[in-house]
Amino acid sequence: MFRNFNNCLHNKSLDKSLPFNSFMFCRYFSFNSQTLKYANFLNTYYNLDPEVQYEFIRNLPKPKYIKWIPISNAKVDSINEICKKYKVSESKAIEYLSILSKQ
After folding, report:
1. CB 3.0-4.6 Å disulfide test: which of 18, 20, 67, 89 passes with 50?
2. What SS3 class is residue 75?
């Protein structure tokens, strides 16, 4: 799966012997505001043939670097955003995050 992912990002052709997972591409592209619209498009048309999806992704203008954010950093960023937006302490922000996560 990751070999096809890497091949696509480096503009190489699809290796049909390897699995193709459009979810990973959507996840990758969702970390950048410039490529988020492409992730949304792929999510909307998830039922397209994998070869068509691969060619679509392969021909996209790709930014030089997209930071892959680990889950733990995303949670810390969420806590920081809650602190800023609601002007609360970090402990309160963690409490708010647990309430928001349940919804």
Report:
1. 20
2. helix
